[in-house]
Amino acid sequence: MARVVVQNVKKYFGNVKALDGIDISIEEGSFVVLLGPSGCGKTTLMRCISGLEKLTEGEILFDGKNITNLAPKDRNVAMVFQSYAVWPHMKVKENIAYPLKLKKVPKKEIEERVRWASDLLHISELLDRYPSQLSGGQRQRVAVARAIVHKPRVLLMDEPLSNLDALLRIKMRSELRKLHEQVKVTTIYVTHDQTEAMTMGDKIAVMNAGKIIQYGSPEEIYKAPRTLFVAGFVGSPQMNFLPMKVISHKDKFFAEGFGLQIPLKKDPGIESVIVGIRPEHISVEKRQDSIGFEASVYFVEKLMSETVIHLSVADDKKIVVKVPGDVSFKESQLVQVHLDLPFIHIFNPVTEERIEF
Ligand SMILES: Nc1ncnc2c1ncn2[C@@H]1O[C@H](COP(=O)(O)OP(=O)(O)OP(=O)(O)O)[C@@H](O)[C@H]1O
């Protein structure tokens, strides 16, 4: 396993800036998720790290050694793709053994390694089947076993769970995490699914338009999103954004709008702000350190374990509230809602950056 450092990497396809100056340092043995919307450059960054794509500019280092011009086969990197990409004409055991055969590993060692990888992926009883005799989930396990069998320095996974049904995806998430704990190979995992990113990554790099916007632990990204984009991309349902005016009153500062006055800890130095608050930090009951206001129920989504309430506040602005359990509300019903002040985020509407208090 290796520490991976990407320095000022740019990759242009004609006029398209797929990667527009990427800097990231990935600790040896860690699990890092690249998260971002379609087209933001996630796959291109993976392909650059694997050597399948040549950089326009910049450098990639493994353990301090510049590997920018090294051929893919000399980097000792393994990839797992969304499409399982297992050889249909080979049995499972031959598929897994394939990378070792290429490296001319002795037969006995191949057998041992195939047993090791298939035990880890719980597919030992499938070794004599052909891929056509496997389910999608089993095929993806074979692809992962084949990727780890030669103990790569870096394991790259590009949306490996996208083709699986919802239940299996959730199961495989925890299995891949467990596998990583056992094998400890430096792993870079691409997804556009924020739940997958939050549950799997030691760290998440949130990307947009060829750039990394924020790189941090899931907790940092959830609790202190650096920009409006990150705040809106991570969390479900999405964070509520309320554009408000800044007013001062007796040396105190407030964000004012929608019938609300939110105390600010200091002068933000601008005339207006965007107040962000996650649906789970708004309640329909008074809580300590919260401020309340009236809103009318617009639409209710009952998920039984939680209830998502869409509300209209002043100026017909809609906000979304998530409360635990199965709560009944009628359309147009008036409710008192409360914002938990410690969980409020403040953004600059021009730069879209977070303002720290
Ligand atoms: N070979 C190519 N030729 C031209 N443009 C390309 C090529 N590969 C990627 N691009 C462009 O580069 C940008 C980044 O693409 P990339 O596939 O890396 O995004 P992504 O984040 O992985 O998206 P997705 O989640 O949809 O797979 C896109 O605008 C894409 O159209």
Automatic annotation (TrEMBL):
Keywords: ATP-binding, Nucleotide-binding, Transport
InterPro entries hit by this protein: AAA+_ATPase, ABC_transporter-like_ATP-bd, ABC_transporter-like_CS, ABC_transpr_MalK-like, ABC_transpr_MalK/UgpC-like, Mo/tungstate-bd_C_term_dom, NA-bd_OB-fold, OB_MalK-like
Gene3D superfamilies: 2.40.50.100, Nucleic acid-binding proteins, P-loop containing nucleotide triphosphate hydrolases
Keyword set includes Iron: no
One Pfam family from the record: OB_MalK
Residues of the ABC transporter domain: 4-234
GO terms for MF: ABC-type transporter activity; ATP binding; ATP hydrolysis activity
CC per GO annotation: ATP-binding cassette (ABC) transporter complex, substrate-binding subunit-containing
Keyword Transferase listed: no
Highest taxon in the source lineage: Bacteria
CDD domains found in the cross-reference section: ABC_MalK_N
Annotated GO biological process: carbohydrate transport
NCBIfam families assigned to the protein according to its UniProt record, in alphabetical order: PRK11650.1
Protein name (database record): ABC transporter related
Organism of this sequence: Pseudothermotoga lettingae (strain ATCC BAA-301 / DSM 14385 / NBRC 107922 / TMO) (Thermotoga lettingae)
Lineage: Bacteria, Thermotogati, Thermotogota, Thermotogae, Thermotogales
